[in-house]
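cron nightly-structures :: item 1 of 1
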Amino acid sequence: MADSISSDDVRKELEKQIAELRKEIGALGKSLADHGAETLERSREAASEALDRAKDRTRSSFRQAREQAHLVSDAVKEHPGTAATVLSSAGILGFVLGLFVGATLLGGDRRW
């Protein structure tokens, strides 16, 4: 009966395999946690860089808008009559265009 395996031997072998599996699961858990931490850090860095770029672009856009506003203001101060004429013409053109679009949307077949 030397060939037969005792239940104690089977139990010991199973306990050994379970202990090895627990070690492997622990190592996998640690590896996943490390990987997750690395991914989180990379994501934070990428978000921070994107935010910095967006801030720079916003500052640049505001600076350009401010410069353009000053140029327009200076031009209006230098040529008030021309500015009034341009703005009035734009207003009249917008009004006429609005009337035309409104009549078209209402489905009016009226001829002008």
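cron nightly-structures :: done
The CA atoms of residues 21 and 27 lie 10 Å apart.
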